[in-house]
# Entry
Amino acid sequence: MAIVEQEQHPSQAATEQRVRAEKQLQGGADPYGSEVDQEAMRLLHELQVYQIELESQNEELRRFQEELEVSRDAYAELFDFAPVGYVSLDGSGVIRELNLAAANLLGIERRPLTRTPFAALIADAAGRDTFERHLSNVRQKPGMQRCEIRLSTKEGSVIHGQLQSVALAKDNRAGYILTSIVDGTDRWQLAEELKGAYDKLETTVEERTAELTEANLQLVGDVQDRRQAEESLVRYVAEIKSLKDRLQAENVYLQQDIARVHGDVVGQSNALTYVMFRVEQVAPLDATVLLLGETGTGKGVIARAVHSASARKGRSMITVSCAALPANLIESELFGREKGAFTGSDARQIGRFELADGGTIFLDEIGEMPLELQCKLLRVIQDGEFERLGSPRTIKVDVRIIAATNRDLAEEIRAGRFREDLFYRLNVFPITLPPLRQRKEDIPLLVRHFVAKFNKKIGKKIESVTKGTLELLERYHWPGNVRELESVIERAVILSQGTALKVMDRFESFSGTEGQLRHEVKALAEMEHDHILQVLLKTSWRIEGKNGAAVLLGMNPSTLRARMRKGGISRE
# Structure
């Protein structure tokens, strides 16, 4: 920063110089004394004072000149080595002076450029027109004026620059400033490159934005698909768990059911042929079937025959024995229960109607069902819906119902133990199974069937049944029907030695009381116990081998050991 001192007014300086001159003259002696004329003395005094003033003014001018030269040198140094180009023009646009930066920018020495019209340095006519308008604006308007021009260098190249001009005087002279921190050509190239980069960046941003938008939409879709998939997975897991629970429950029930199945329908009597004809009529339909007949006539076998010949054979047939279940558990067994539905229900249970959904449910001994549950059963038959114990949610099922009873339901209705409307719903297609005494011609076939079954189960090799044995079996009236015959054959297979079936039962005892029956069964068990013990004593407790007790008894060694454990037979 240059600091310029403030100048004194000329009259004030002259007065001070005169005072100093007079003081100098007063200090010297008067050389003329009294002889010199007073006027001459006055004039001489004034001349001396004036001389002193001139000398003082000359000294002041020399000092001012030195300071001006120092200031001019500083200005010239700042002007020449400024980082931008400075050009001083007169009012007509002719170059009067330019600094070193401007000369270097144009690639021309400063001396040849002096007195050169600035317009001659402009590269094109449009630029010269722009400069003329710019020059006019500078003359007319105060403050800095700007315009963009293209200048030609000495080598013929073109540089871009910005002309910034300001009038320094109000006469025809004006000062203009051509500025450039960086070479004009590089700046414009950089500007073009920057613009190109910006345009490319914008294009890239737009493309990337479009890609990101599409990716975002895809991601949103994927998230929605994933959420739906997770929801579906949760639903499928719940369904799988439900199906798993159902299959496990079905497996338990089927295992129990398999133990109750007596085998396929065996027989060729007219009575049984008619029963099978009725089965063929109703099996393809979904009509409710009511099986009637005495206990042990094979109602379970016929129910399975109906199911196996129906369109539901690919699904399970669930069997429920209404007589075998306690009255307080029948409802939860049939319809299921939620956890905590009643005291002791610490787990959720699927009911057998749910297990039978899509298949068949066999309600054996339907006449034993408590009266208070018959209404709920009626609703299932009519509407196919019910609620689990402890749950308000209604469950819909598609189940075919086969019911069986050995009771006279008409008598049960008269006694008030069975609902009449339920009977009508069950009695859509009744099938009455004949007792064994009415189909005695089927006894030989049944005997052979049961012998083959128990040969496989027990490990025996009974190959023949004597004619006398068959006649004995055919003469008996069979109050327990096929179930009783099956039990007799199983005991006979166990007790028979060799390959011929020997029936040791005293059939007349079966017509006695229940106590007599239990006594006879106990007697048979004791007989079997004694017989096995005698053989073991005879073989010195040798079970296996050529002379072992198993061979003499006609049993498999493992079967013999099982019988020994059951009978409490052990060597001391």
About this structure: The first strand starts at residue 87 and ends at 90. Residues 87-181 form a domain with the Beta-Lactamase fold (CATH 3.30.450.20). The chain has 19 helices and 14 strands.
